[in-house]
Structures are given as C-alpha cells and as structure tokens.
Design brief:
Blueprint (H helix, E strand, L loop, with lengths): L4 H12 L10 E6 L14 H10 L4 E3 L6 E3 L2 E6 L5 E6 L13 H12 L14 E8 L2 E6 L6 H5 L9 H7 L14 E7 L3 E6 L20 E6 L3 H9 L5 E2 L7 H6 L3 E6 L3 E8 L9 H10 L2 H7 L6 E2 L24 H10 L3 E2 L5 E3 L2 E2 L3 E5 L4 H13 L6 E5 L1 H7 L7 E8 L2 H8 L16 H12 L3 H17 L3 E6 L2 E6 L26
Parallel strand pairs: 1-10, 18-19, 18-20
Antiparallel strand pairs: 2-3, 4-5, 5-7, 6-7, 8-9, 9-10, 11-22, 12-22, 13-20, 13-21, 14-21, 15-16, 16-17
Helix pairs in contact: 1-6, 8-10, 14-15
Length: 528
C-alpha cells in the first residue's frame, strides 16, 4: 500500500488554520464526511443521523460491540411468549428526558407506534415487524404484540429508528422535529445544528441508565461533543494529525498508513459487521430497463481496480450484493456472480442491437445509452462515480453524474427522476438487506430500483416469520438469486470500519451498529 506522505505533510500547515481550535480537555470534535437530512429517528435512514441519535437517545434494547448479543437498553429485561408473538419489556426506573421529564411506558408506545404509523412515512417501518399492537401495561411495562413471529425483532429494536422520543417535543416542533431540536433520554443532549456544518451536543448530567456492557453507565465522561462536517479527505486527515480533531471513523484510505505511523494517533479496525457500496438501477426506466444493459454494465466495472486505485487495497472488491461472509449467504451463487469482462459486455450489447454512434455512445431505437446517476456530493461517491463512469465508457455507456448535498440528496433519491443511484449501507445478514431494499412496499425508498415482485414479497414474508433457520435461509437464498440474476445493482466494494483517534484518549472499541462507530459514547474520555 502506498501513501502520499509529502502531500499530506504539505497540507498540515495550510489547512490547520481552517479548522476549529484544539478541543478542551472534556470536549471532543468528531469529523465526518457528510451530514444527515434531519435527526428524526423514525424518518431518517442516514448513518449521520444514527451516529448522533444513539448518543442523544436510547432504544428499548442495545446491541453489544460483537454485533450479535442483544443487551439491556431502556428495558432491563424482557420475555417472549412461546409462540413468538408477544414481547414484554420491563423498563428501568428513574429514566428521564434531557429536559428532566420522566420517561414512561407511554413514551415507548408513542415512539414505536409513530415508527409504524403510515402518516410518518418511515422508509424502514418494516423493521418493526408485523405489529398487531403496542400497549403500556403500566408505567414501566410495555407489551409488543405481533401478528406473525419476527426472529429479528430484538435486533431491529436496537436500531436508531427505534429511539424513544418525547411526544410533547414532537408535537411542539412539528415538521421541525429533529431539525430545530430533539429531546431524548441519551447521555448527550441537543444544543444546536447548523446543516452541512456542525451538530453540537452536551452531556446529560442525569444519565445513569446506560447499557450494562459499558464500563460507564453514565453520566458520560465528556462534557461536550461537536460533530464537524469535513467533506475533504485531506482536511480530515490533517485534522486528526494536528489534533484539531479528536476522532473520526471517516478515515481516508490513502492516509491509513500515515495515521498508523503517527505517534499522536491510534487506529483501530472492526470487521464485526458489514458495509457495502453499490450503484443501483431504476429497472423500469429506459435505458436501464433492459436487463442485458444492466448485466453488461456490471461486467464493465472493474471493482478490483477501484479497490486498489481509489482505496489502496483497504476495501474488498464486491461482486455480490452482500458480503459472502454473512451467515445466510448462498454459496450456490458464487459461480453466477458477474465479474469484470469488457469483451463480454461489448458482445452482449452488440448482440442486443445497441449500436455505437459517432461519439462512441450506443443507441437503440433512438434511445441513447446515457443513464443519469444521482450521488452524494462532497463525499467518497465523487471518486467512485467517476471511476464507474470511465469504465462504462469502454462499452459505449455515457453515464451522467448529478451530485447533491446530503441534506437534500435523501429527498432527491425518493423521486423517479433518475436512472441510477449510488448508495452504501450497513447490515448483519443478507435477510436484513433484502427486506430493506427489495420489498414492493418500500418503493420509492429505500427500494429505489422499483423492484416490484410478488414472489419476492412472499419469500421475504416467509423469511421474516420463519422460526426455523433452514426455512429462513431457503427463502432468502431464492431472493438473492432472483435479484443477482436480474443485475439490479452494480456492487462496488465491501468496507471495514476504521477509526482514528488521539493517542491521549482511552482505547476506543468500534461499534458497528448501523455503522455508527462510537455508539453511545459513554466510554469516550481522555487518559488521566
């Protein structure tokens, strides 16, 4: 792996003056690549939202850093009925919101029902399962009733979408909830948000109900956290090297070796969960409605070159939609995956009647093979999209790129205006990914491909409700085969989590829940 050390070194002096001053002893600045569209847990699917919401709020149950063990959250214990249809949660005593108001079972019921309420239009309502009702039995007991078993329910309830919110706060702020303010039960409280710039939060001095797997259940060690948006990779690197920023999980891959060698920086990596980058097709829009076109475009992209040239070998080239290391991967798909083959891609397009025009771009029946792709501006996606664009030109496809800031991109990606889109996502299992992206009811987002298929929906319902692993895996394997064979996505790479932080901080344990990295931040502190 190579690293342009002279470039990074030259940037240190020129960039340091652009960054905030050195953090105070009990305050840290976390730099990240992009912002969220909002901080409403039931409405945002952005990782940037989850990063902050895990700190400003709590969920009924929590996920330990091993990404397998479900632990306590706002509930200290729970029971599940023999038929898997009723979950009874017993809440911790003494929990309050940041404004001091006690949290009760009614708040839990309001929050979870808000999640599944059609009026909320949550893009991830399916994660709550097939809910019959959610009831407050008393002030500290909640009964969660399902119409069908859902083996992943506890895991899904650890996600930021299940964050418990304050009804009064939601109603007072209306459409500005999660934009102008947020009153949660977490170890940190909302102070201010300047979109595309920074989110500021301060310690909740009353917080003592953190998950038991933390050495510190609260209050947090830190008094204040500033989440600073820094789109430029070189500036993020300089920020960590010079101590102008204390920690980041948005580590530029070109700088990993430099940061590992720096005496004032520690670098840790986690492979406990998965994160995959891909470009998807809106399969009912010309010209990408043609499955031959989609397959040829898959073959044109050189994932191995992208992994090496853009990411210096720090990521794994992806040919599958989920990592082949997931527990429910179908090994039978290994030989059906589309791998780089420009000659075959050109042959397929020739045979399908896509002829090159004078400018080298293919045309058929008056339709020019020039799909429009929407991506996030000021992020890793710029380089990825340009690399894909260059590869596609080799087969006569002129992909056009339109980039949008993250604060508006999520809205643009819920439209029907584009032909392709760039996205990345965290997951634990193939089933989680398939349920997220390929349910018909999830059109227009997160099913941005318009994949509408009755058999897929039937199989996903079967997989979700299955109590037998063999039946669950069989259902998910069939869906995996269907979507791979249809070439609905171009997988790009699978990425590990890498966190760089100041050496005078206590060791950081990466937490991959929804890629949030620092999770609740309860153990973040400076060494004595």
């Amino acid at each position: 792996m190579t690293c342009n050390r002279s470039l990074i070194g030259a940037l240190v002096a020129s960039t340091a003056l652009m960054l905030p001053t050195l953090a105070a002893a009990q305050e840290i600045t976390i730099v990240r690549e992009v912002d969220s569209n909002n901080y409403d847990p039931q409405r945002s699917v952005a990782r940037a939202a989850a990063e902050a919401l895990f700190m400003m709020g709590d969920t009924l149950v929590s996920l330990e850093p091993d990404m397998q063990t479900v632990s306590d959250g706002l509930a200290h214990s729970w029971e599940v009925s023999d038929d898997g249809l009723v979950y009874t949660f017993h809440l911790k005593e003494g929990v309050s919101f940041c404004d001091g108001k006690p949290m009760t079972a009614d708040d839990v019921v309001f929050s979870l029902k808000r999640w599944i309420d059609p009026a909320t239009a949550s893009p991830v309502a399916w994660r709550a399962g097939d809910v019959e009702d959610i009831v407050a039995i008393d002030e500290l007991t909640v009964e969660y009733r399902l119409n069908a078993p859902f083996s992943e329910l506890l895991y899904q309830l650890t996600q930021s979408f299940g964050t418990i919110v304050d009804r009064d706060n939601v109603e007072a702020l209306g459409e500005d909830f999660g934009i102008a303010g947020f009153n949660g039960t977490g170890p940190f409280c909302w102070v201010s948000w300047a979109p595309r710039d920074q989110l500021v939060m301060e310690r909740n001095p009353n917080y003592t109900w953190g998950p038991s797997f933390y050495e510190n259940q609260g209050p947090a060690h830190l008094e204040r956290i500033v989440w600073q948006v820094v789109p430029e990779a070189s500036t993020r690197t300089v920020a960590v090297l010079t101590g102008q920023s204390d920690i980041t999980q948005y580590v530029p891959h070109i700088a990993v070796a430099q940061l590992m060698d720096a005496p004032n920086v520690e670098v840790v990596r986690s492979d406990e969960a998965f994160w995959t980058y891909f470009m998807g097709f809106k399969i009912d829009k010309d010209p990408v409605a043609d499955p031959v076109v989609r397959a040829a475009m898959n073959l044109a992209v050189d994932q191995e070159a992208i992994a090496e040239d853009l990411f210096f070998g720090m990521v794994e080239p992806a040919f599958s939609y989920v990592s082949q290391a997931v527990v429910d991967w179908d090994p039978g798909l290994d030989d059906r995956l589309l791998r780089h083959d420009v000659d075959e891609a050109n042959r397929m397009l020739d045979e399908a009647g896509w002829e090159r025009g004078a400018d080298g771009v293919r045309v058929r029946d008056g339709v020019r093979l020039a799909p429009t792709a929407y991506i996030f501006a000021g992020s890793t996606w710029g380089g990825i999209a340009e690399a894909v664009q260059a590869d596609l030109l080799k087969i006569g496809v002129a992909m056009e790129i339109e980039a949008f800031d993250a604060t508006v991109a999520w809205g643009k990606l819920a439209t029907q205006e584009f032909d392709m889109f760039g996205m990345s996502f965290p997951y634990i299992t193939a089933g989680e990914t398939l349920n997220l992206y390929f349910r018909s009811q999830n059109v227009p987002t997160p099913n941005r491909m318009n994949w509408i298929d009755e058999r897929t929906d039937e199989l996903l319902r079967t997989g979700m409700a299955a109590t037998d692993q063999e039946a669950q895996f069989a259902a998910y394997h069939e869906v995996l085969g269907k979507v791979h064979d249809a070439a609905v996505w171009i997988p790009i790479f699978h990425e590990p989590m890498i966190i760089a932080y100041r050496a005078d901080m206590a060791p950081v344990v990466p937490h991959n829940n929804y890629g949030a990295g620092l999770y609740k931040g309860l153990d973040l502190r400076f060494l004595d």
